[in-house]
Design a protein that fits this description.
Blueprint lengths: L8 E4 L6 E2 L1 H14 L7 H7 L4 H10 L8 H16 L7 E2 L3 H10 L4 E4 L4 H10 L8 E3 L12 H10 L6 E5 L2 H10 L2 E5 L16 E3 L4 H8 L6
Parallel strand pairs: 1-4, 1-6, 4-5, 6-7, 7-8
Antiparallel strand pairs: 2-3
Function: Specifically catalyzes the dephosphorylation of 2-phosphoglycolate. Is involved in the dissimilation of the intracellular 2-phosphoglycolate formed during the DNA repair of 3'-phosphoglycolate ends, a major class of DNA lesions induced by oxidative stress.
Protein name: Phosphoglycolate phosphatase
EC number: 3.1.3.18
Length: 231
């Protein structure tokens, strides 16, 4: 893909792209494990496990594996504990990444239609965006339970395109993980990734997005003059 481009709509992922939510998620995972009489997992492990919703995170925490499937009885006991903890700690330790506020301000000043598409459930997404002061940046927020399917399905992206009446070929997805890339490709969107996200510990360049940026604030520059590294 050749840059610069002028998308009619920009959809932005939440965890790992706008917000570092791992400190809160780690607190909740370790507190859950303590209640279950199990050892803490720690932040390094949680950073590699996030990105597919809290249900998968709980299963991974119980098994200690990215691909692990927890015992159904253990999972049924653990999930309500985690949800209770995360309800009270959604934004206690989470922070915006450097450059996010400046980047969003530039995009809004440029007149771009902005949406947030995340796999996080709405009951956590909305309070987190509000607490961090960026909810008003987005005309539409699509959470993991807003529609029957979530990323890597293209359904949330295409739903947003319909909302803005923008053709997929004129739309852009900004994310941090292979799920974002897969969803964008399936929807026919351009896709740019940040280098600092989660992506289960793997270099996002291996997923072959159209470009990679090191700071959210670089997005505006890429769109206007093409100054960024193509993946």
């Amino acid at each position: 893909m050749q840059f610069p481009i002028t998308p009619g709509m920009i959809l932005i992922d939440l965890d790992g792209t706008l917000v570092d939510s791992v400190p809160d998620l780690t607190f909740c995972v370790d507190a859950m494990m303590a209640r279950l009489g199990r050892p803490a997992r720690g932040e390094a492990a949680v950073r590699e496990w996030v990105g597919n919703g809290v249900e998968r995170l709980v299963s991974r925490a119980l098994t200690g594996s990215l691909d692990g499937e927890a015992d159904p009885a253990d999972y049924a006991r653990a999930l309500p504990i985690f949800l209770e903890l995360y309800r009270d700690n959604t934004a206690a330790r989470s922070v915006l990444y450097p450059g996010v506020v400046e980047g969003l301000d530039l995009l809004r000043a440029g007149g771009y239609a902005l949406g947030c598409v995340t796999n996080k459930a709405a009951r956590f997404t909305e309070p987190l965006l509000e607490s961090l002061g960026i909810r008003d940046a987005f005309e539409i927020v699509i959470s993991g339970d807003t529609l029957p399917e979530k990323k890597p399905s293209p359904v949330p992206l295409l739903h947003a395109a319909d909302h803005f009446a923008v053709a997929p070929a004129d739309a852009l997805m900004l994310g941090d993980s292979v799920s974002d890339v897969k969803a964008a490709r399936a929807a026919g969107f351009a896709v740019i990734c940040v280098s600092y996200g989660y992506n289960h510990g793997q270099d996002i360049r291996s997923a072959k997005p159209d470009a990679v940026i090191d700071s959210f604030a670089e997005l505006g520059q890429l769109l206007t003059d093409g100054a960024a590294r193509v993946a």
